[in-house]
Amino acid sequence: MFTEGVHYNLIHILFRRVDRSVVSWQVKAALQRVGLESSNLIIGVDFTKSNQWTGKRCFAGRSLHDLGAGPNPYEEAIGIVGDTLSAFDEDNAIPCFGFGDTSTHDQGVFSFYGDGRPCAGVPEALLRYREIAATVQLSGPTSLAPIIEAAMGIVQRSGHQYHILLIIADGQVPRGCGAHRASSPDESRSENYMEERTLQALIHASHFPLSIVLVGVGDGPWDDDQMRFHDGRRRFDNFQFVDFTKIMSAEMSRAEKGERFALEALEKIPSQYAAIVSQRISDLAAMAPARTPLPPPS
């Protein structure tokens, strides 16, 4: 068990390690060219039970939330993307949420703090993640709809400022859902209930100045997720999927892997922001679904 001081120092070291090895100047330059002067990051972390076994090949059989030596895939993804975007985040406040545990299942999200406050930068997000991951009870199933809806609410309350939602998850959204998890009789009859629910959330989110990046960690498979949610009913292409494991298993240096991941995770952001501006998405003043995050698990 870490003492508070040692615990904080470990997080600081992990963040500095990512900070020094990844400087994604290409992404930053592209964002500046389309006029993006500031952005706001939102983080969603998958705490479904499958994290216990989807690291069989890529993480030496350990849980993807394992807090042993060195950063786990969730910590690496948060650190790399957070570092790249930190130059555009004016207030350094990052709302962080978890989903898929025993308190939320596929129906809600919990905030990293009981009062709902954001984390003060990436180091605090990493610190709070480790505190939660040490005690959270994993469950499921996986649904991205609640975290997307929570992000829409944040964008609305900000006066429709531009945000980037980073979702880190270990498995595909299942197509079907048992009747015990459906919230209406119609949903329980749908064979593709879970997939449809996520797709509808993505369509709704395209009325907000919000980019959504899904980072796939673990063994996968992930092939379908690159196409399943590319629906023509969206006002703009607001979704990007990145296979973290594939990039990190490539034959290149660790610094090069970090750079490649940052570039792929954020490669659509410039064109998405340009579409938001040209279509005046912020002026739509869309209304978000009502969703109140739960407190973090105790």
From TrEMBL:
One Pfam family it belongs to: Copine
Entry superkingdom: Eukaryota
Organism: Triticum turgidum subsp. durum (Durum wheat)
Phylogenetic lineage: Eukaryota, Viridiplantae, Streptophyta, Embryophyta, Tracheophyta
InterPro entries documented for this protein: Copine_C (IPR010734), E3_ligase/Copine_domain (IPR052079)
Entry's Gene Ontology BP terms: protein ubiquitination
Copine C-terminal domain residues: 63-280
GO cellular component: nucleus
Protein name (database record): Copine C-terminal domain-containing protein
MF annotations from Gene Ontology: ubiquitin-protein transferase activity
